[in-house]
Queue: 3 jobs
Job 1
Amino acid sequence: MSLVSTSFDAPATDGYAHDWALVDVETSGLTARRDRVLSIAVITIGPDGEQTGEFSTLLNPGCDPGPVNVHGLTTERLHGAPTFDLVAGQIGAMLQDRVLVAHNAQFDYDFLAHEFARARMWLPVSQRLCTLALNRQVDPPTDDMKLGTLAAHYRVPQQRAHDALDDTRVLAGILRASLREAARLDLPLPLVTCPPRAESQFTPKPPKSPCAYRNPGRLTPGGPLRQGMKVAITGETAHARAELVGRAVAAGLNMMTSVSRHTSVLVTNEATSGSAKARRAHAEGVPVIDEHTFLHLLAAVQPGTAHETTAVVTARTAEPEAVRPLEPASTTTAAVPAPEASALPASAASAAVPAPRRPAPSDSNLNKPLAGRRVLVLGGVHADAAAARTQVVEQGGSAAINLSASVTDVVLLPGGEADRRMNRIIALQLPVHDPHWLTAPTTTVHNATELRSQEPHVVPRGGVVDLPAPHGTSAPEWHVTAGWAPQADCEIDVVAFLLDEDEQVTSDEDFIFYGAPENPAGTVRLLTGGPAEQTIALDLASLAPATRRVVVAAAIDGTASFGTVGAIQIGVAPGSNRASLARATLDAATTERTMLLAEIYRRGPVWRLRAVGQGYDHSLDALARKYGVDIAD
């Protein structure tokens, strides 16, 4: 079966034809650095879409198999199965020189990387493709992106859910259909480059216990150390570094691996050594003491002030879904905080947020002319394109940033006719309008467009939504996904900062970025779905009590600006394959290279998300220093 349909003139079919290795794993849990693979299936497919190989096996993980009610793999069933190291060579041969494909590919990739590392072998994968990310680009009219839902949509038979081999066979059908749709829409494939993974990256690390105390500020000359002070050490020490850190943590100090303007004191026996930490301490005016003085002060650390804690109530409802329907806190555009406002304590910043409420009929978009429409704006200078997208939202529609199956209308600004997507738009017979259409849009829906049963709530810049409380005992892992138009000349990095009530990170691990994509507790993770999509996954129920706010930002690597990139779209969903509950399309102005996308913060018993859309001319390191991290270290 061909991967590319012959029923239309597919563009550049070579971009869709690869040697593929489709993978599905069943695991003892969800954390790759801790849990193990219980079963694996691999199917290889050639560039022509024909299957070339198949392998599956149960595996003996040497540990408890975890949620048997999900995968059905009991200890008895796994007894006598091979361990992963015995089949790693065969699996590696099937993966070699092929693109790894999986549904939520980073999950399967990370588990395989850990298993290969435990077997003292390299994972032979240089590229991967996530069918979740691919279908987020295609955007079919499904209510979610679960494997079974997509299988039903694409008419792929499914026999045994959570069976690795059957799931992989289903995945093969979904891949073929998704690639046909990508070719029909002329979408670039979201291939992710997978550099070699060092074994040390997969050594399980115990979570660092968060410091229980607020940072009282800097050490005063002749004054005592206080619990919660942020302390960094640099250079050679007479005592083992681990011993110094252990004693300091036991005393209630917050040990950091970098220096910022929030550092209380730097410990070094070589104050003039010129190390990066020493230079930063000098630049920021951070006090410097030697090891002997530090040990003397450790003997009499003064009590600190504990972090404020907020009880997050878990709602109990009779609804069958995992979360209650989204309740917008406001459907009007709130003022976007200026740079100075974002430095306020979270309690002060949230005081202006309206109380949660269900929208009254007048708040609804149902009666607006673009309700249920997805409008793609092409051409124009950035400011004009941003204004047009704002008009789309004001008229009740959703502003698209890429061509997809859900786009219902196209607005053409000056120069838009030269966009490479116009040929495909014409072939798809999508309605194309001039800018005046936005002032009085027609209400005729394109006949070929299918609609979902429930569209995501459109959040304007500055708008706020409550994240629904979980139903039952398990809370969802919220996914904040940022997407943009594919870029040829620059890369965009999504990052997250976990901030306390003083708008500081409590430890270096509270800065999540491409170099540290997961905090030690695994409660916040950076996931890469492709070169034009990244996700921050948050286990809000398990965040440290000191974490009051999570800031999600994007930064451009290089000299390009968001004026060149265009809009960034964010969506928030209760899980990787659930439908987005809310969506916002954010435009910075012209010269910004760093952009605050969203903030997730505690307000009483609930968590809220605000769509920010605030750009800054400075680079990511300046934003990081503001929150207490020096990424140069």
Job 2
Amino acid sequence: MTGTTRPGRDRSAVFLPPPPGAPRLGGPARSTAVVGAGIAGLAAATALAERGVAVTLYEREAYLGGRVGGWPVELHDGSTATMSRGFHAFFRQYYNLRSLLRRTDPHLGQLTGLPDYPLWHSSGLHDSFRRVPRTPPLSALGFAALSPSFRSRDLVRMNPAAARPLLDVRVPQVYERLDGVSAYDFLASLRFPEAARHLAFEVFSRSFFADPRQLSAAEMVLMFHIYFLGSAEGLLFDVPNGPFPTALWEPLRAHLDRHGATVHTSTPVAHVAPTADGAFTVVTDRQETRYDTVVLALDTPGLRALVARSPRLGDAAWRERIDRLRSAPPFLVSRLWLDRRVGADRPGFLGTAGYGSLDNISVLERWEGEAARHASRTGGSVVELHGYALPEDADQAVEAHRLVEQLRRVYPETRDARILDERHEWRQDCPLFPVGAYGDRPSVRTPRSGLVLAGDLVRTHLPVALMERAATSGFLAANALLQAWGVRGHPLWTVPDRGRNRLLRTLAGDRIRPGVREDA
């Protein structure tokens, strides 16, 4: 997908033209260090290298992809498998992430669509997005009509005035309106039935790895806009049909190699310092190298730590803002190699609510080739469990045991399964978007010319979230540097940045001329 070719089925998707300029860098050579090889760093490195910039990409881990990376592990039977930090849904609204992947996979053949996005509540209520229409507002109306968690008497008790912000989400105005409210309090104000709150909304808030009491309502409402009322791409999604490294990042590394980029893995950056003539030095344990510009594409703890070790970066106010960034509560990913199959009727991915700390279950052999080969060889299953927003002082072994116990409750056939092998990842490095903090979050540009930020922690003023925010910010960071050199940037796409339906805008009290703005 290039230029103005529409990236999906939604005819209201918004095209963001690139900053104008020359097609490639000419004149003096330019160099950029990109620190961090997650999605944001890979997007920035790709965008710059394709325009002729000499890019060096630094990554502290031995693998690319950041929170969507993977690494080899040896199982007890001597076989090798790829471990990761867990399942990620590649929604069809993720236009810029998918554009990055199309560099090496033009038809996205490494992604496969899951047939459903089911949600189960411990009360026995089940929801599904498989039969929900994709076009707004039929998407939200269809979900409510088909969902057993929305009963007519419950709908009568709802607070329609409190729901108005959902009908006409505008970015960035949604932050002015709702950033001072928690997602939990906003949901309570709607007076939704409790099961519907868990299934239809809290699944979004927990996608940020945060308790709804800690999360800004603006972020949760933005998610509702992106997936329900703001986009016609729907709630179904794709997943890689192989482990993240082989399906996604090894091909992209080869693409970077072809464009002259240098990639250093297992290479943490010690500090970055500006020079007197406007350049930067990047110091690792191996060497000190000079670059014209720098992209910092780190997670929250990594960015805070690097800025703290680099006392000459930015001004005092910017450094204080970076230091105020916080990580979401820890989460746990448990992957189990079982000696018998999960029931054939079980979905590949299941979102759960009301089952203690268990938030979702993946049966990996349903879509991933490596897991399918292991299951075929052993007659078992490869199952992954997620628990989000766990207490920071929790006992990790206890939490892992609880996830397994909840799996056996949700899928009783696993009670007799023997765990042949298991791996557990306890992490706390996702950004927290707390109540009232939007205005304090850093943007792509910094007080220092030539220094830019990228990552899902960055404020973009665009209707993007999660992996798509990471990819979008990476392209925005690259475009900012290219613009300064007079080089044309890369085009972007987003879902509409305001409510797209005239009737819903009227119900929300819209007094602005109807229409979707396409000049963002």
Job 3
Amino acid sequence: MRIDVLGAVQAWHDDGRPISLGGPRHREVLGRLVAAQGRMVTTESMIDDLWTDPPAGAVGALRTFVAALRRAIEPDRPPRTPPRVLVTQGTGYLLRLPRTAVDVHRFQDALAAARRSPGKAAELGEALALWRGPAYADLPDSAWVRQERTRLEELRLQGVELRAEAVLTSGEGAGLVAELGGHVAEHPWREPAWGLLARALYRDGRQAEALDTLRRARSMLVEQLGLDPSPRMQRLETDILNRSSGLEPSGRPDPDHSPVARPRLGPRTTVELARTLALAGGDALVGSRRDRLAAIAAAERTGDVTLTARVIGTYDVPSIWSRADDSAQSRAVVAAAERTLRRLGPNGPADLRARLLATVANESRGADLTGTAVETAHTAASAAEALARDLADPALLAFALNGVFMQSFTRPGLAAQRDGIGAELVTLSSHHALPAFEILGHLVRLQSASALGELRTAAEHAEAAELLATAHESPLVPVLTAWFRARALAARSAGPGGPTAATAAAAYRAADNDLAAAGMPGLHRGLLPLALLGLRLLHDRPAPTGPHLDWGPYLPWVTPLVLLAQDRVEEARTALTAVREPPGDHMQEALWCLTAHAAAGLDEPGIAARAATVLRDARDEHAGAASGMLTLGPVRRYLIEAEACVQEHH
């Protein structure tokens, strides 16, 4: 397995599948063991670190957290065999993993190697790229977390400066100017950083700017700290004035090993660039989300709450899908927004509060919400909308309405409500030249019309979105509308004179090929198999049973039908009984319909009754069509099946 803590705490199996670590306490237990670096942490120490005032059942609670983590980390471990990763030793626990399996250990080892051998310092760029935000970003702000974040942040800064020193010594420098400029702006008290920036400027042929940099450093040190520059800084100024040969590189870099300098811009500039790149999709979208998180972390490190609020709220990229592409990233953004809201207080600037609230609403995706997080996200969406309307700020209102849309999947049957949100987005955005949100409005209306079976109306919105996308360079739009056209073919294939099921299946596969490169794994994973299952159900055929299908997040709801198709009736019944309530997202009607269909096929009236109760409000909609990308057919069909199953037992 692999664990990352330089950012939110995350873990993966060896095959790349993410490990669900559970709640904050579970992740804190794992994080605390990572921080121990392979040493045993006693139960007593762990309890003291997890609770300021430990409850009476703290030992039992800790054992429960450990047991849950062990099940998640080693799901295939046979019963009554000792764990291999999270092991019990003496009076506590430890992690038994190679250091290469943990990002923070790889970073620390790379830094130590660079200190021992200056020739390896230029390779620190790869190790520094492991940082996705503050260390342990999503953990509670407990004493051990604060201590570890402070320690690791100091090591990160040392790594930045050690790498810059190596790059300058090897003969480069121009590419470091932007990076070191941002570094100095964030950490003005680090005298070595000023010296490195001055040397990089000099290496770039900017002698006057190099000298000005050193004079600004001297002024800051003398006036604000009452300190004179170090002898090293004074010598550097003299050397730059005299164009000393000592400033020349000791050797040219090996072209096969020279580091690629990626400019580290200021946090506001970084997030504005990330916002622009997000609309391009693909690798640019993936990178923009990573850069956004890094910008938020940089802003938080400054301690400037207004700057942090602006950095978080600037990323108002339209959101159309209710399942996060990276759940850990979304949680980290929400946590940062909530921290900043608390620091701003209820009397903080209304526009900043509105943007932070809208960020919480947009990043709190339905598929990932549990417990009080659902209510928190809904409250944030409503509050953001109210503030935006009071401020009469069209761009802010569009962002807030996006959050309202993202929180409009509380139950099945709300397509008409979402259509109203989409209509306001289209009107508002067209009047105030907000093309990205005008596109969003048309896509929302496409989804709503698709859910209601109004395919002609949906096609009109698809065309409107495509026209805007062409004019404003939004390449993700045709990827989404291609799926809608495949969904329309699938619906028509079930009627007389329509295309064949094979034609619809080919259209789904072609659309899936484009989506695979769009940088939206939260949308892509499991979508094609679910679409093909819907196509089979439209033609009254059983679920596909091939082992090659990756059902992604939809597997629990599909499994009973797959087992039933294999005549494994009792296994199917067991699987159906274990299925939980579908999450509140675009696919909830589809998953409830699959549950109803399986319950009817297995003659399970209790489950059928529960599904029928939920689906009645969506009786006039089409299952899965709220996505605008696939359909399982009319909800009414599955509702009738479920109600018939119930009636047979009365």
